[in-house]
Amino acid sequence: MDGDTSSLLTEILVSLGILAGFVIVGKGLIILIDKVIRQFTQKTETVLDDLILAAVEKPAYYLIILWGAYIAFHRLKLELKQGIFDLADSVVFVIAIAFVVKLVYDVINALLEWYGITSAEKGRDEIGKTVIPLVKKLVKIFTILSGIIVVLDHFHYSISSLVAALGVSSLAVGLAAKDTLTNMISGFIIMADRPFRLGDRIETDGKSGDVVEIGIRSTKVRTLENNILIIPNTKLVDNVVLNQAYPEYSQTHFFKVGVEYGSDVEKVKKALLDAAHEVTDILDDPAPQVYFTEHGESALIFQMMYRVPQYVLRWSVQDKVNTAANRRFTEEGINLAYPTRTVYVRQERAAG
């Protein structure tokens, strides 16, 4: 074996040793994360550190190996054409950027996952179901485009024309999809402002129902007829929305009735309160209240105010109150009023 061959073999063995060293360092990093750092992070109250560790573990390992391969290859004094070295460098650079893009995306993804978990713990499940998936897609697109721009710039491709083309395309798409973009922005406003949540019963523009999905473009509401009402988000942002489930699920209802003139006021009040106390779904605190509100055109007007624990009980409680009040009035001899008119006829004397 001549000296050149022996020297080349030595260089190859040294380069392989360098590569093996970087592999060992990478494996050591994995072991350090698994055996030491992860044991520590599992004892913390937050899951954010665990998610970030899982995100950086593999990309960091492969970047270390790639770095070692780059150093090992370049220290070899191989008699190769410069173009081969340039090609190898370009391949390594593209692979490194790909790993960096994945690392950045995985870290941001971990932060979003943590935010979704935290929001769910605070009772804001809709954020994790609606906002987080969209943001993940946008972050993925942004990181990939950033990586492509860095690669193009490295190879001395002009990116100004690409940016200009993207700007013109964005303007055209924005004009063509103006209503869609407006609804998307309104969707973000709804998710940030949270005027209602999933499961809340809302009423807007004469329509009411339970919110089943808060989307980016529209919100789906299940009506009382068990149909799905799709409302554009701009309608919900611009119009008045009544949330029957906020600030709490209990609701105050009113019962209005008119009785004949001459009825005993105290007896009417007692009959209405007794009827309310018969209905077990009516809350005792606050207790039902009855008010003699006005002398109507044809009746004495009374109004009872009571509270139910759940807004979904509205119709069943109203039915029970009406039934009980009607029975109490019959037992007490209280007559309901109805419109009456007294007509006086004046007769003119005949001219004599």
Question: What keywords describe this structure?
Answer:
352 residues, Alpha-Beta Plaits, 9 helices, 3 domains, elongated, SH3 type barrels, 5-stranded antiparallel beta sheet, alpha+beta
Q: Unreliable runs, pLDDT <50, ≥5 residues?
A: none
**Helical content band:** 55-70%
Largest sheet: 5 strands, antiparallel
Q: Globular, elongated, flat, extended or rod-shaped: what is the shape?
A: elongated
The total count of helices amounts to: 9
As a whole number of angstroms, the C-alpha radius of gyration is: 38 Å
State the total count of DSSP E strands: 8
Strand content: 5-15%
What does this structure look like?
The chain has 3 domains: 3-174; 196-243, Roll (SH3 type barrels); 251-332, Alpha-Beta Plaits, CATH 3.30.70.100. The longest helix has 40 residues, at 82-121. Helices cover 59% and strands 14% of the residues. A 5-stranded antiparallel sheet has the order 4-3-2-1-5. A 3-stranded antiparallel sheet has the order 6-8-7, with helices on one face. The mean pLDDT is 80. With 352 residues, the protein is α+β, with helices and mostly antiparallel strands. It is elongated. Helix 1 packs antiparallel against helix 2 (48-75), helix 2 packs antiparallel against helix 3 and helix 3 runs antiparallel to helix 4. The chain has helices spanning 3-41, 48-75, 82-121, 125-154, 160-176, 178-193, 233-238, 265-278, 314-332, and strands at residues 201-204, 207-214, 218-223, 228-232, 242-243, 251-259, 289-295, 300-308.
